[in-house]
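One record is given unchanged without comment:
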Amino acid sequence: MPRTILIADDNPLIRKTLCEIFEAEEDYDICAEATNGQEAIDLALKHRPELIILDLSMPVMNGLEASRELKRIMPSVPIILFTLYGDIENEVLAADPLVDKVVSKGEARNLMGYIRSLISV
């Protein structure tokens, strides 16, 4: 049975690209797509994903705020913060250990490797 992933990004092109990455993978399925952090929380409660990918900068609630709430209600679910600002990884992880990995959108080709390191099939 494929592992389930929730994607939250306000940019429809980024969401589409991520969905295409997962369509090529047999072991992973997108269970839901959100356009902001609050929607990500609502969809995570409904779909219970095994991994969550959050954009850092989103309207309504950003990725860090959403990760805090998601870790409170789903502490064992890994969260990847997907951002244009990949150079902030150490800063974010030190300030907010509730994010399991920070991945630059420029490193999207390496995303599956990070996902496999957080959840194995």
In short: Residues 75 and 98 are 9 Å apart (CA to CA). DSSP finds five helices and five strands in the chain. The mean pLDDT is 85. The two ends are 9 Å apart (CA to CA).
